Amino acid sequence: MNSPDRGATEFAVDLTNCDREPIHVLGRVQSYGCLLAVSPDWFVAHLSANCQDMLGLDPDAVLGVPLTEFLPMQTVHLLRSKLQLLDAGDSVGRIFALDVFEDGRLFDASLHRSGHFYIFEFEPRAGDAADGSEMAMVQGLISRVQRNRTVEEMAHDAARGLKALIGIDRVMVYRFEEDDSGTVIAEAREPQLESYLGLHYPASDIPKQARELYTRSPLRLIADVNDTPSPVVPAVGPDGKPLDLSLAATRAVSPIHLEYLRNMGVGASLSVSILRRGKLWGLFACHHYSPFYIGYDLRSAVELFAQLFNYELAQAETDAELAEIDRARGMHDRVLAQMSDGQDLMDTFDFVAREMADVIPFDGIAIFSNGHYRARGLAPTEEEFLGLARFLNTAQMSQVYATDCISERYPRGADFSERAAGLLALPISRSPRDYIVLFRQEVARTVTWAGNPEKPAELGPNGVRLTPRKSFEAWQEVVKGHSAAWKPGERRAADTLRVTLLEIVLKLTDEAADARQKANDQQELLIAELNHRVRNILNLIRGLVSQGKGDATNIEAYGQVLDARIHALARAHDQLTQKEWHWVSLKSLIRTEVRAFLSEKAERVHIQGPDVDLSPTAFTTMALVVHELVTNSAKYGALSDSSGSVEILITQRPDGGAELGWREKGGPPVQAPTRKGFGTTIIERSVPFELKGTAHVEYKVTGLEAQFGIPTAHAEPAEAQADGDAGDTTDAPVPSGRLTGPAMVVEDNMIIAMDAADMLEHLGASSVRTVAGVADALKALDDTVPVFALVDVNLGDENSLPIAERCRELGVKFALATGYGASDDIVESFPDVPILKKPYTIEHIGEALAELF
């Protein structure tokens, strides 16, 4: 059998070039939808041939014609406005049940940017309006995933849940390994189908270009492998290049891939990307054995399910990483305590070996220090190791070195491969190089492949390409000369010990001051690595949010708010790095969290008492605790309505420690949670566990009350007091601009108006008033004369000519925004006024301001 989903791509290059050439996407569209591509000035540049049957658009008649000539103005305006809501990059917008021609025919539409083109895809609406049942199912299905602890168990329930949601014949969870090969780790299928569970696939089955495309476009549907696709006309543009359809939902797929699926008896397929920290972790690969189409509503539910699974996967893997870090930290502490009295490494070798065996499995261990060699278990002889040590000296000295096949990197390693096939080397000095090396013996790994990974290309119906295999019988490949692979967590634990041992060696060989300076260098390195890891987690969350921005408007609005909050959390973490990982103000931490999550409610949080500086460890811990307190109060507590408030009292204890009191009052009645979730655990256990402090939480009816004790080791009086309340803080630096004073936005779409207001505030406006209609705008101008107005030309059933004329009478500088093009009469009436064509950005507004002021 073959790969669960080879990828909806065309391999238009020879195999010898497949890693160097960019991937070329087919210029054809599947028959269940049609496609229009328009230029930046909204002339039709490309369209699929089936637009004539589906939309009634003759390619010969519409190519090079403005979109407004054959689509209703309201439809064009809606498309422009939807584009305005898209983020830069690969975001995709959707419009459900769109009456494109205002004749009662409903279509589901998808829109995105492709180079300098706007791509619109239309699919006839499948059935009546959605009742939301698919979306309602997602939460229940994800709840079943959440109950599991291991990735394999989660994948099993995810496959079952996705099959129940879609109703497709087979769902597989396909995970990429470190060498880019893949394994089916979970499967849900109809009883009569052959199982693919546990089968292994060579990396060439889904090449690098296809994996990159899966990262950009997370969902790909092939409704019928025997479908006759419609070509995109013209095939190439004036620049001689084909239209880039990488993100097109209706894009046809390579005939090679279709042949591949037909050989497996598959009639339709669906693939959904599984992302981990923004990288492709695996796929939900779905097969159906007859044609199978799912509409936009169900596709949106599938995407939401995948995004939530991505989050749960990240949580599970992060929990496992944290457990590994705890074990490594324990090993670090015990080794450091044992060797702190200045013992030589050789004298403590047996102790170090026992400690490492509890964290990293190995079959042999050796130490080479100051020209002396000792070994335990299965390891090379001293003579064999001396040659190996010279090879290790060529590797990077500031990190561990690992391989599961020594003989591939060091050919003379074949002489002792039966005893030691793989190694993990820890450099424990700088010059001369000393090492502790772990060895693993050869493991004859039996891998069940889904086809011969070394089978060459064949002459198939599509030429000399990566032709799908004709035989689906699994075969066995026995890997010899290899050990079990070193897992990432084992490498991290080894690196932790490497740093520990390096610190000890420096302490024994250098003067105390020099040793301390070098230890600080190592600490800064670890801090930088930790900061990088935290930012990766934040970027992962932001990527998950961005994946959902193509759904309905309310989801888009939610995604924007959450995105801004995540940036605020990143800025809070940056406080540590900006202070060079020194002690940081507790009040500044609280204010950052309040500003990030409460906005206009910030003035209802009152901070009293002297400021306290926190150690880097305490700052990170308290950031999590305060974050949970603030967000919980905003959702469920005193700040969830219009009347409550929070009082925060900071006190300095006689012993030098600090107390942080949190008291909510005036909000809705509070009940203790029926179960302790992750957030509750952080509030109640972080300070005692991480800082050896105290935490006391009471869920009183009148409001949540909490008291935290921070030990002397992690708290000290602030160098400079920062009195004032949380509401006194200012926003982060905004882009410089030429705008000062109040501004006004006239826009009938609330989200676009809010977005434009944010842009103007970032460009210097002291305040921004938003209005939606002519009457409100004229009244606003009579009340307060702004220094600048951004005026949308078309306001529903009205136009903004009276507003523009009134602005000119009052001497108000203004710019016009239009979603219909520059041919509007009002635009022509003001030739000296800057025109912003939707979708516009903050840079476009800045250019207009530069022109006016």
Tell me the layout of helices and strands.
Elements: E1 28-29, E2 34-38, E3 44-48, H1 51-54, H2 59-62, H3 73-84, E4 93-99, E5 106-114, E6 117-124, H4 133-146, H5 151-166, E7 170-176, E8 182-189, E9 200-201, H6 208-216, E10 219-222, E11 230-233, H7 255-263, E12 268-276, E13 279-288, H8 296-339, H9 349-357, E14 364-369, E15 372-377, H10 382-392, E16 401-403, H11 406-409, E17 422-427, E18 435-440, E19 445-449, E20 458-460, E21 463-465, E22 475-479, H12 488-509, H13 512-547, H14 553-578, E23 584-585, H15 586-598, E24 605-608, E25 612-614, H16 616-635, E26 645-652, E27 658-665, H17 678-691, E28 694-700, E29 703-710, E30 715-717, E31 741-746, H18 750-762, E32 765-771, H19 774-783, E33 788-792, E34 794-795, E35 798-799, H20 801-810, E36 813-818, H21 825-829, E37 835-837, H22 842-852
Parallel strand pairs: 24-26, 31-32, 31-33, 33-36, 36-37
Antiparallel strand pairs: 1-11, 2-3, 2-6, 3-11, 4-5, 5-6, 7-8, 7-13, 8-9, 10-12, 12-13, 14-15, 14-18, 16-17, 17-18, 19-22, 20-21, 23-25, 25-30, 26-27, 27-29, 28-29, 34-35
Helix pairs in contact: 4-5, 4-8, 5-8, 8-12, 8-13, 12-13, 13-14, 14-15, 15-16, 16-17, 19-20
